[in-house]
Design a protein that fits this description.
Shape: globular
Helix content: 25-40%
Strand content: 25-35%
Largest sheet: 9 strands, mixed
CATH topology of the largest domain: Rossmann fold
CATH architecture of the largest domain: 3-Layer(aba) Sandwich
Amino acid sequence: MKKVLYVYGGPEFHPTERCGKLLKDYLKADGRFELTLTNDLDVLISLPDGKYDAVVLYTTGFEHELTADREHGLLSFVKNGGGFVGIHSAADSFRGSRPYIEMLNAEFDWHTDYHEFKVSFNDPNHYLNIRMPEFSAPDEMYHLKSHDPAKCTVLAHTTWQGKQVPFAFTRKYGNGRVVYLASGHDMGAWQNPDFKKLALRSIAWSTGAELPSKTIRCGLLGYGPAFNMGKGHAEWINKTPGLQTVAMCDVDPGRIAAAKEEHPEFEGYFSSLDDMLKMKDLDLIVNILPHNLHASTTLQSLDAGKHVVLEKPFCIDVAEANAMVQKYREKGLLLSLFNNRRWDGDYLTIHDLLNRGLIGDIYRVECGQGGFNHPGFWWRSDKSISGGVMHDWGAHFLDWILNLVPAKITQVMGDFQKRVWHAVTNEDFGQVTIKFENGVTADYWISSMAAISRPKWLILGTRGAIQVGRNDEMLLVSYASGVRLESKINLTLPAYGSVQYYRNVADHLLMGEELVVKPEQARRVIGIIEAGKISSELGKSVPPIKNCE
C-alpha cells in the first residue's frame, strides 16, 4: 500500500483540514493508499527518509514558511522520485521560495468569483484523463503566473473570456512526478465525483501508476429481445475505452442470428455457457438472463475465473446472494450489479441538494410508482422466474434509498397483496417500510392496481422537503436560510448511466479504482425484499436479515 502525506494549513476560508479528512475517506475506500494528515511543516524536512511515496499539499499562504531545511527536504524528495500533488492554493503557498514555485510551475495571480465552469480534457489517453467526460464544476478558479506551458503537460482546461486556462497539468521534476489541480476551493468541490476522481488519479500517477495496455474482453450471457438489452450492453461496452464485447450466448437460435446481424464483429456466438466460458482470453461475463437464472450461472462463471456484471436484480433471495458474495471473494474477481440508474438526473439532483444542506437532515423518504393495468403475460410477471413484483423496479428504488440514507437498518415492515390480476403470479402490490438506526424511515411501494399513484419522490427534512412527480420537474421547499424558499428545478430524466457504469467497471479492473456498485450493496436490496415478504406473512415488522442490515 502506498504511503501518502497530506499537508494542510492556512486561513479558514479554505477548509484544508476538512478536505484532507474527506480525501482520507476516499483513499480508504479506494484501498490502494494510506493517508497521513499533518499541519506541521517540519515534516517536510524528513521527507527524503523514504517514509512516504507522495505528498499532497493543500495550504494557503505561509509565504516565507518554507525554510531552507523544509525546502531542501521537499524538493529533494521530489527530485529523487517522490510524487507531489498541489491542490488549488498550493500555488498561493510558499511564494517566498522561488525553487518551490519553479518545481510547481505555477504561482497564483488572481481568481474569478465563485462560478460554474466547464472542464475539458486535452489528451483522452493520459492516465488522469482516460474515460473522463467533460464536466461542470462550481469553484473559485485560479489564474496563474510563473507558469510555462512548455514545461508541463496541460491535461485539462477551462475557458475564460476566450482563452484557455489550465485546470490540471503534470510535469517531471528530476525523477519525480508533479501534478497541479487548480480546483478544490471548498467542500463542494471535493464532493464533486469528477474532481474526486482527478484527485485520486493524480496521487496514483504521481506514485508511478501507468495505463495498462490490456483490454477487458466481454461476453454477453443472454441476448433476449426485451428492451434490446443484449445489443445495448454490447454498444455501451464498446463505447468504453479498455472494454470490448467479443462473444454472446443464447439458447434461442433466433437471438443468435440477431446478434450475428447486429454485431458481425463478435468472435464467438454460442448456445451453451459451458462453451462460451472455454473461449480463449474471455475476461468478463455480462449476465442478462431472467432473474431466477442469475445465481447459478454467475456462480458457474465465477468458478471459471470470469468477472461478472449482472443485470438487476441481483438474484431471487438472500441465500443466492450469500453464495455469490462468498464465491467472488474466494476467487478475487469483480462481481457487480448493473445499477446504471444511479446516474439518473433526479437521484443525482437529490444527492446534491442534500449535500448542500438545503432541506437539513432527512427523516422521511417516500417513493414508488403504480398504475391500474395488467402486468402482461411474460416471464417478468411470473413470480417463479421474476422473484415477485418488487424485484424489477424495486431493485432501483431500494438501491437509491440505501444510498440516500447511509445508516444501518433496524426494522422492515412489508405488505404484499394479490387481489386483481390472478392470471399471473406476481403480487399486485408490494410495499416495504424501512426503519434506520439514525431514525430515518423510508417507504417504497409498487402496484399494478393503483388507480392513482403517489409522487415518485417525497423527501422530508428538518429544514425543507423535495418532491418529484412523474414529469421532469422537482419541487424544493427550503427553510435553510430562515425564510421559506420555493424552487422548481427542471430535470433531465433519465440519464440512464449505462456508459458511466461501464466506465467505472473499466476503471476498477484496469486501474484499481473503487467499484461503485458493490455486490454487498446489491445483497442488502434483496435482503429488504425478503424481510418485507416475511413481515407481510407474519403481519408484523421484522429485523433485517443477517448481512443485509
